[in-house]
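SAMPLE LOG
Freezer: B-3
Tube label: C17
Construct: single chain, 98 aa
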Amino acid sequence: MISIRLHPAAQREICRAFEWYLQEAGSRIATGFLDDFEHTLTFLKHHPEIGEAGSSNTRRLIFQRYPYTVVYRLKGETLEIVAVAHHSQRPAYWVTRK
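STRUCTURE (predicted):
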């Protein structure tokens, strides 16, 4: 079974996005963001190779309802979440993350 590990910087990105949605759009929208993230992770656990191939041996999958992309690497049976990138972010800003 595939396990999921979040890079500490990706964890911070999730928290910052949740807090932003909470302040700017309210709890329903903020919770929806987390639900969309969880849905994306569940989908990736069952279909880890579905994401579009990217740089630095990564793959990318776009959230269903929010303007974010999960950037991840497959390392054996581990799905490593490298970044949770907003679509307005500088492309590949996360490339140096190990």
